Amino acid sequence: MIIADNIKLLRKEIPQNVRIIAVSKTMPAEIIRQAYDAGQRAFGENRVQELYLKQQMLPPDVEWHLIGHLQTNKVKFVVSFIHLIHSVDSLKLLTEINREASKLNRRIDCLLQIRIAREETKTGLPVEKARQLLFSGELSDLQHVRITGLMGLATFTDNTVQIRQEFQQLAAFFKEVKATWFPDEPSFREMSMGMSGDYKLAIEAGSTMVRIGSLIFGERNLNQ
Ligand SMILES: *Cc1c(COP(=O)(O)O)cnc(C)c1O
Questions:
Q1: Is the CB of 212 under 6 A from ligand 1?
Q2: What is the CATH number of the domain that holds 182?
Q3: Does residue 75 form part of some domain?
Q4: How far is the CA of 180 from the centre of ligand 1 (A)?
Q5: Is 196 in the pocket of ligand 1 (CB under 6 A)?
Q6: Ligand 1: which residue has its CA nearest to atom 11?
Q7: What's the domain range around 97?
Q8: Is 224 among the domain residues?
Q9: Other beta carbons within 10 Å of 195
Q10: Is the Cβ–Cβ distance between 46 and 66 less than 8 Å?
């Protein structure tokens, strides 16, 4: 029951108002089931095909979060069940989510993934591009998506000063976006930031959702 213990410890440590998304990528359904039996309901996956298969193997009250890059041609596989897409990084993708969601008459909650890490490899919209997207006004045509906040990944480093700065940058941009584009929308309220190695710094900076994999399920194989 190591997984149940890990979850219990995290719940004790993490403030009640911060949601824990258990990142179950690479883990088989029976392992995810252990976390489910310990009361965990929100799970994050980064690959559409894997997510699609696991969703069929686990109870229907699991809340599935997509946290990895989403290609437009894969949107149709997740719209029927997805709870929140954390990794939206273009108007093109939003438009496709809107199109597929409209067929099912659903409205899909999405976060804009913002590039805060200084590393070249990290994905997400640069702040300037995100502003352009919001200023363009095109979002208002998309009745089947709802932007409920922002997501960001800090640089993978031991430098806590840098990580803190990056999370604070996301928090500052969140404030700007809220004040400028969503002042009257209480649903715009999520800041998805923090992973196993940096969630404490993220919570200090105002995270409302931490995405925790290895601290719950143990180390994964490299590169996944
Ligand atoms: C894998 C992953 C996580 C979880 O990473 P851990 O270090 O195992 O907690 C969080 N967010 C994203 C986007 C990921 O791909």
A1: yes
A2: 3.20.20.10
A3: yes
A4: 30
A5: yes
A6: 211
A7: 3-217
A8: no
A9: 19
A10: yes
Domain membership flag for residue 223 = no
For a pocket test of ligand 1, which of 20, 66, 195 has the largest count of ligand atoms closer than 8 A to its C-beta?
A: 195
Best mutation site among 6, 43, 48, 67 for ligand 1 pocket (most ligand atoms within 8 Å of CB): 67
Confirm or reject: Cβ of 194 under 6 Å from ligand 1. Answer: no
Is any atom of ligand 1 closer than 6 Å to the C-beta of 82?
A: no
pLDDT tens-digit profile of 40-98? 999 999 999 999 999 999 999 999 999 999 999 999 999 999 999 999 999 999 999 99
Assigned domain for 222 exists:
no
Phi, psi dihedral angles at 146 (to 5 degrees): -135, 125
Length of the chain: 224
pTM for the full model?
Answer: 0.96
Q: Using CA atoms, how far apart are residues 63 and 84, in angstroms rounded to an integer?
A: 8
3-state secondary structure of 135: helix
Q: Angle formed by the axes of helices 29-37 and 2-13, to 10°?
A: 50
- Could you say which DSSP state residue 125 is in? B
Domain total of the chain = 1
What confidence tens digit (pLDDT) does each residue in 169-210 have? 999 999 999 999 999 999 999 999 999 999 999 999 999 999
φ, ψ at 115 (rounded to 5°):
-80, 110
State the distance from the centre of ligand 1 to the C-alpha of 210, rounded, in angstroms.
Answer: 9
In 10 A of CB 70, how many CB atoms? 26
211 CB within 6 A, ligand 1: yes
**End-to-end alpha-carbon separation of the chain, Å?**
24
